[in-house]
TrEMBL record:
This is DNA repair protein RadC. Belongs to the UPF0758 family. The lineage of its organism: Bacteria, Pseudomonadati, Pseudomonadota, Betaproteobacteria, Burkholderiales. GO terms for molecular function: metal ion binding; metallopeptidase activity. Keywords: Hydrolase, Metal-binding, Metalloprotease, Protease, Zinc.
Amino acid sequence: MSLKDLPADARPREKLLARGPGALSDAELLALLLRTGTAGRGVLQMAQEVLQTFGGIAGLLHAGADDLKRVKGLGGSAKRAELMAVLELARRALAEQLKERAAFDSAAAVKDYLQLHLAARPHEVFAVLFLDAQHKLIALEELFRGTLTQTSVYPREVALRALHHHAAAVILAHNHPSGGVQPSRADEAITQNLKSALALIDVRVLDHVIVAPGQALSMAEKGLI
């Protein structure tokens, strides 16, 4: 069944305008973005299948362009581009929140922001949130890629970028592509090395956040900073 065959009050667009976006299911909201289905598969069915493929909205937001391309009906560039645009808007909205208030006072927003940026990466990425004296976001930079060890994360580079941004504090972050967010001994060692190095230039390490699809861990909350 296509959207036009549904009763008027059950069509996602009409329901949204009449009752607000909160009245729509995840599949209905996604169907509005997709607009059309494929041969023999209506757009609502397609939306439900996409959500099942990625484990819901959170998983979809962490999907990359190549992941979306493998889904039947998303091989074309238009639909994928629109979904990636929504993802980028979510990132920018979270970044604006962090710029308007102290990042350390909004741990949930920090985790969400970092998940959107890093969780879907197929390789390990080490990033740093540079913060001002009020702990508001100045910039997020990805500084290192590949398997993270004490020898692959250079404190000197992090210190130079902190000085460049005139940062007063930082939040460290990296992803675990294989899933799971428990810190390894290498993660703890990297954190302590950077904490010691940055202390020499009066830059505090507030946290080290580890992200994976659908989850994030704050080392500060675990008493590991």
